[in-house]
Amino acid sequence: MKIHSWWLMTGCSLWVGVALLPLPGMVAGWRTAAQEAVVIDETLASVNKELITRSMLRRAENALRRDLQEQFPNDSARQEEIFARLQPRLLVSLIDERLIAQRAEEMGVLPEIEAQVNATILELCKQNNLENLDACRAAMERQGLTMEDIRTSYRGQFLRQAVYGQDVYSVLIEQVTNREAEEYYRAHPADFTEPGEIEISEIYIGFTPETQPAAEARARQAQAELKAGQPFAEVARKFSDEKRASRANGGKLPPYKDDQLAEAFRAELDKLKPGEVTPILKLEKAYQILRLDARRPPSVKPFAEVRDLVKRLIAQQRADAKIREYLRGLRAKALIRLAEPYRNVLIEAEKAEEAEAAEGGKKNG
């Protein structure tokens, strides 16, 4: 079971459009016998009265380190390089997450998102063959995660989808003209091409090490009857394994897309015309004879069928800049207070991101 928590860095626009007020560190603590204060937690920022604490920042740092270790397991230098670059922006990311959550609350979608989180967690457990939430929780803990870590990760993802979908993407899609969409469609035909499709039938004779000689003899007999002109469907019903699903349908298999076929099968079928059969193919645990029934070449979908998809693709390409602009607007309307050591964190992070965006623009240009 693998969990990713890159949610912290997604959509992190680093621009501040408000006057930032210093926030004195709020410390909860207790005194030892020597009357020394011991720091338990500290408030680093408040976002419209919602607090972001040092423990939240530590969890974000730990999540980033886990992901970097998983992405670059044998390259500690690369891990440290990326961590050093992204760590200063984690507090900004947490601020943005609070603003997005507050916007989602205004939109009235929080109950729907919580239901989506619950359903996703249950599906995650199911996919990993974990029979209940306790087993799922234990599997997460073995990775150094908690259930709340996972819930927070998915919640952040779904919050961004809901808020950006309504406030950013829907606007961008409406701004894309039909002419722009048609130009993009003509320039990227491969993006809208349906893979070719192939229809095949099979004769399938499984074997074990003990039964392989007999299975081979049976495959040769089936091949001989085909060469003698016997209908493929009749030979498939006669020779294919009784438990093979295709046997009852005369060997007919569901259609395959070109990209779904293993290379070895595609190479054999490419030699055939419809109605022709392959030689006996030896698999790991079976002999197989295939017949090519029909082949449909790749086809480009009509523009009218994919117009909405094209507009969404164009909107996605324009989204990064618009999301940065959108977050500026959220911050401009928010009361953001920062503890003294972090007063400039938003401005510094914004400068770093703008520099990276400019560098990326040069490379793309």
Itemize the secondary structure elements and their pairings.
Layout: E1 21-23, E2 27-31, E3 37-47, E4 50-53, H1 54-71, H2 76-86, H3 90-107, H4 110-127, H5 133-142, H6 147-175, H7 178-187, E5 193-194, E6 197-206, H8 212-227, H9 232-239, E7 256-257, H10 263-269, E8 281-282, E9 286-296, E10 299-300, H11 303-333, E11 336-339, H12 345-364
Parallel strand pairs: 1-11
Antiparallel strand pairs: 2-3, 3-4, 3-11, 5-10, 6-7, 6-9, 8-9
Number of helices: 12
Proportion of residues in β-strands:
15-25%
- Distance separating the two termini: 40 Å
Rg for CA atoms = 30 Å
Sheet with the most strands? 5 strands, mixed
**Approximate helicity band:** 40-55%
Low-confidence spans? 1-39
Describe this structure in words.
This protein is an alpha+beta fold. Helix content is 54%, strand content 15%. It is built from twelve helices and eleven strands. The strands form three sheets. Strands 1, 2, 3, 4 and 11 form a five-stranded mixed sheet that branches. Strand 3 and strand 4 form a beta hairpin. The chain starts with 20 loop residues before the first strand and ends with a helix. The N terminus is likely disordered.
Give structural attributes.
five-stranded mixed beta sheet, disordered N terminus, four-stranded antiparallel beta sheet
